[in-house]
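User: structure tokens for Gelsolin-like domain-containing protein, please.
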Amino acid sequence: AKGVTRTKTRLIAEKINKNERKNKAEILMESQGAESSEFWKALGESPTPHIGECVPDDFEPAEPRMYKVGLGMGYLELPQVEIPHNVLTQKLLDSKNVFILDCKSDLFVWIGKKSTRLIRAAALKLSQELCAMIDRPSFCSVTRCLEGAEPQIFKTKFIGWDDVIAVDYTRTAESVIRRGADMKVIMERDKMKTDLSALFMPRQPTMTMEEAESIMQEWNEDLDSMEAFVLEGKKFVRLPSEELGIFHNEDCYVFLCRYWVPVELPEDAEEGEEEEELPEEDFKCVVYFWQGRMASNMGWLTFTFSLQKKFESLFGDKLEVVRTHQQQENLKFLSHYKRMFVIRNGKRKLPNAPEEKPSTEFFHLRANGSPIATRCVQIQPCASFLNPRFCYILMVPFDSQDLKGVVYVWIGGLAEHEDAVVAEKIAYKMYQDNYTIQMISEGEEPENFFWVGIGGKKPYDKDANYMKYARLFRCSNEKGYFSVSEKCADFCQDDLADDDVMILDNGEQVFLWVGRKTSDVEIKLAFKSAQVYIQHLRNKQPDRPRKLLLAMKYKEHRKFTKCFHGWGKYKEVME
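Assistant: Done. Predicted tokens:
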């Protein structure tokens, strides 16, 4: 016997065992001349029978014939089915019918799942008659086959019917049964979906001052009133009007804003209608809950169980609650402060609290992406943070009862005039009594107090080109696939997600920032994404080639941190 015949026979035995014996039968290979006694006993033969050629050389298997059992006008029909090229295929079978397959030495009655009971019974009777009609070998048998549970011998009569058992030695049998063995199909199905479209989008254009003023004016015209509250201890109290616009990063604030909602008149309204007939303007209330980046979540819990309940009972479905975090405020909220938005470190000084010895305070005024998103954020006093593109406020305290200190408003050589005006207004608002306020331009700093107060002269950047190019992308697979999304131009340090990888472009370098809880898959895909982004920039900005650098959390370089306004310590969340 040829090797192919041996393998094919073994394969058929494996399939019979799997499909018809629940994989519980034992398969034994018997070689001629070395048969076991159990083998001969099962055949009903003597242990040494005569074995010779029993198939003539001119033998050809009989051509199969297939009949379709049907019901005619009160009688049974048995039309023969045409078999293209005498090759049986599964497509010839139909679930609604019953077929008889005649292979001369075997007769099979195939019963479709949707066939009628009458035809099934008639087909079994017809098959018996068909078997007796012509001369057949004595071992000819009639086999009943149910759709979906066909015996293996029946399947061998068809081309391509379950010809190969799905086997993959790299996976478990359950996995092969569940997902199949065709790796091409599996790879196509499991192909990782990625969305890198954000990397190829142009940078968000910076809003002009004229456009910003127009939007601020429009939003402030809609504002009817704003009430401010601040968390003192375990309850919210009204915020003094002189403190409006001055925030502390360890406090929580609540702002109740009432907006007019214009009523649209019907188109068919007559021009001469009296004013009394016009409907009154409607309103809606938006409550902004502002949380400093160093404040605990207890403020939010206190709000939801106290003030929010009160507001809901007052305004009902006209109330909208917006929770916002430091430096992640929306533009509409920021517009109400008209660029006078100050963020101080620490907690707000309580009215009856004892006087504390003041320390040097240093503020950086900066707008991100839009003049509306202008903030004056307190930073560490250090001359290396100066930049001619911006304005700064430095307060140097004195040990004197008459004069508390001197306040310098430092105007960078490349700063906008509007920024200088805002910085001056903020300085006068924060330091009202017993302070000397001086406007100084870059290069005119007094040696005695300014440089001493800021910690001594240090070299600092002479331009801020990164403001024109800075972009922050987030790489994440939280959607079920890997995607890259761009943060808005007004991004901040808290946008760096600890369980993701971030890509920062500062115009000279592209940083890959890796959080502490990032998966290896995200890191690899983000690395490839950063390479794709750099290659894209080579075509778009050939005059500004970028280098790819790594930035680990807590170990970021100054070239990385300068892109974030008010960079400081990370807010650590308790596990």
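User: Anything notable?

Assistant: The mean pLDDT is 88.
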